[in-house]
Amino acid sequence: MSAESGAADFTKLLDYLKTSRGFDFSAYKVSSLMRRIQKRMREVGANSYPDYVDYLEVHPNEFGPLFDTVLINVTGFFRDAPAWQYLADHIIPRIHEERGKDRPIRVWSAGCASGEEAFTISMLLAETLGEEGFRQWVKIYATDADEGALATARQGSYDVRQVAGVPAEMLQKYFEQAGSRYVFRTDLRRCLIFGRHDLIQDAAISRLDLLVCRNTLMYFNSEIQERILARFHFALQKTGYLFLGRAETLLAHNSSFKPVDLKNRIFQRAPNSNLRDRLLAFSPASGTSETAGTTRHARLREGSFDASPVAQIAIDRRGFLVQANERARRMFGLAPADLGRVLQDLEISYRPIELRSHIEEAQGSRSALVIKDVEWRSAGGETHHLEVQVTPLLDANTTLGTSVSFLDLTQAHQLRADLERAHQELETAYEELQSANEELETTNEELQSTVEELETTNEELQSANEELETMNEELQSTNEELRAMNDQLQQRSEELDQVNNYLETILTSLRSAVVVLDRSLHVRVWSEKAEDLWGLRSGEVKGQPFLDLDIGLPVRELRQPLRESLNGKGKREVEMEMEAINRRGKPVRCRVRCTPLHGKGIEGIIVLMEELVEGTS
User: Fold this and answer.
1) How far is C-alpha 126 from the geometric centre of its chain's CA atoms?
2) CA distance readout (Å), 461 to 251, 465, 522, 569
3) In terms of domains, do 255 and 186 share one?
């Protein structure tokens, strides 16, 4: 199968998972995703992606194990202990000091898996605030995309191996032992809310003091990482903290977060975020309703109008002032109470220019008017040169109102004379400036190229680091599976040893020497009484033909009875007495019983040999 066809088949598999189960893996790193799916394919014996799609259609229960394999839930209490210690010593006390009076502490554990990290945060906060303060002021949201892992997290119950990372004093203080398991205290667990949340699709939880998302971002591609980090920036308070895993950094997003301790991957929300980041934070992963889109567009238009550097007002067709942007309010001293008043009652109606006649003219001609060279002295005594634009606002054949813009050209007017004086000097220096500009552009391009190379190298190193961490977690998951299998094998081995010891005890307790033969009359079992009677150890005779053994018993005389017992002929049990010589060389009389060994059929012969003492029958 070629690489192209394999990639196409893989894409079809992802499309099938999305349409049949609603789980979109397209945002995950392709190399890691392929490796995890191929691991599951090997376990079920699927040789190709189309074969695996067929298998999923026939076995719908396979989706659960597949998602468990892809969504690696490798976690633990106090994982990377130095980082948690730094959080406990430096960050949580800051959050406690900065939260203010009567304001709760809000924490989000994103990608919480089976809940260990969420309960770790709970213990650290309870240590700082006290148990009563924790119950009163703390709210922890723990989310994951895996419903199975969330079900485990909600129970808060862990075995001895899982709580091995919890310090002994905390284990005793915050867990209750139930049999062989440890359960997080119910009164404290009420402060935790577990729920399903898709970091790609769902909106972020807001007003957070601490956001913990460790070793989760590394499974997504760079575009999705950037979108999620923008949402994290929006979700945090102005001084909120972000706690990432050791394989994750914010090299591509350093304007939104500033490092507090880079070694331990703890960052703080930066106050400045650009427009692109804010749009990323609010942009949905799927379609939204038309009403919500219209509302956002209206807010965007209002914000754009108010942020315009040109002073602008809007008057409706009845002559009422309905809008004035921030620049117009500052320039002409308009107050919020002036909105809704009749324009002719306001000073702006005649200063800096008589507006009402121009508004009537613009509405009558249904076209914009431009009044140039308008001189106006502000309240501060400064002289301004304005260009006033009066534009009718039309909707089909209806006039909605009028927009008046005041373009401040004072600076341009002042500069015009200066520009004329400097024009000659500028032309003289133009050639020198052009030459210097070309050299600067060349240098800038070289620097830009160097910066891009460094950024590419950083991204490659980050990607490699994330890939190694992913593989490490996969190996840890496999190791846990092998450990569980080893425990099962050890248990079965112990059970087998018990059965063997029990069988050995039974054989030792019998008065007769016991020999078990298979259908080819080779020795399978040779009891201690047989060793004592004939002088041969078990290791010397096991696997040997019984009829060829050189012992004091004339075994060849037993050939015919043994064959008949194997073939089901004759008596079911043959008993006979024979003259023999024991291991001490003493002639004895021996009673021999041959009994068929029954399983699915006659699988062999049991031979009992007993030395007769004089006077016994």
Assistant:
1) 26
2) 11, 6, 66, 80
3) yes
User: What's at 143, amino acid-wise?
Assistant: T
Rounded Cα distance between 229 and 110, Å, is 12
SS3 466: helix
Domain at 247, CATH number = 3.40.50.150
CA distance linking residue 91 with residue 86, whole number of Å: 7
Q: Between 183 and 38, whose confidence is greater?
A: 183
Which two three-digit tokens encode residue 603? 């699988």
User: CB of 151 within 8 A of CB of 115?
Assistant: no
- What residues have CB less than 8 Å from 89, skipping those under 6 apart? none
Q: 112 with 254, same domain?
A: yes
* Number of domains forming the structure of the chain: 4
> Which has the higher per-residue pLDDT, 273 or 430?
430
> Does some domain include residue 456?
no
Q: In which band, very low, low, confident or very high, does the pLDDT at 396 lie, cut at 50, 70 and 90?
A: low
d(CA 189, CA 522): 66
Residues 19 and 99 in one domain: no
Give 452-461 contacts, CB < 8 A, sequence gap 24+: 455/251, 458/251, 459/222, 459/251, 459/252
Sign of the torsion angle spanned by Cα atoms 12, 13, 17, 18: negative
- For residues 126 and 134, the answer to whether their CB atoms sit within 8 Å is yes
How far is 557 from 606, CA to CA, in rounded Å?
A: 16
pLDDT-above-70 percentage for the chain: 87
401 — alpha (psi -120 to 50), left (phi > 0) or beta?
A: left
CA-CA distance, 437 to 283, in Å (whole number)? 40
- Report the alpha-carbon distance of residue 53 to residue 195 in Å, rounded: 30
By the 8 A CB rule, do 147 and 58 touch?
Answer: no
Q: List CB contacts of 67: < 8 A, sequence separation 6 or more.
A: 23, 146, 148
pLDDT in tens, 157-171: 999 999 999 999 999
Per the structure, the complete domain to which residue 398 belongs is given by 302-408
Which strand ranges, in their side-by-side order, compose the sheet holding 398-408? 321-324, 311-316, 398-408, 383-395, 369-377
Burial of 329 (0-12, 13-18, 19+ CB in 10 A): middle
**What is the pTM (predicted TM-score) of this model?**
0.51
Q: Please list, in sequence order, all residues whose beta carbon lies within 8 angstroms of the beta carbon of residue 452, skipping any fewer than 6 positions away.
A: none
DSSP helix/strand/coil, 248? coil
Three-class secondary structure of residue 488 per DSSP: helix
Q: Are 244 and 214 in contact (CB under 8 A)?
A: yes
Same domain, 181 and 65: no
Query: What's the token pair of residue 153?
Result: 């997290």
Is residue 181 assigned to a domain?
yes
DSSP state of 270: -
Tokens of 613: 């003492």
Q: What is the C-alpha to C-alpha distance for residues 274 and 232, in angstroms, rounded to an integer?
A: 14
Looking at residue 333, what DSSP letter applies?
T
Provide long-range contacts, Cβ within 8 A and 24+ apart, for 173-181. Answer: 174/119, 174/122, 174/123, 174/126, 181/157
Q: How far is CA 228 from CA 201, 225, 250, 253, 578, in A?
A: 10, 5, 12, 11, 90
Asked if 60 and 86 sit in the same domain, the reply is no
Report the side by side order of strands in the sheet with 208-213: 192-196, 138-144, 105-110, 208-213, 236-244, 266-269, 257-261
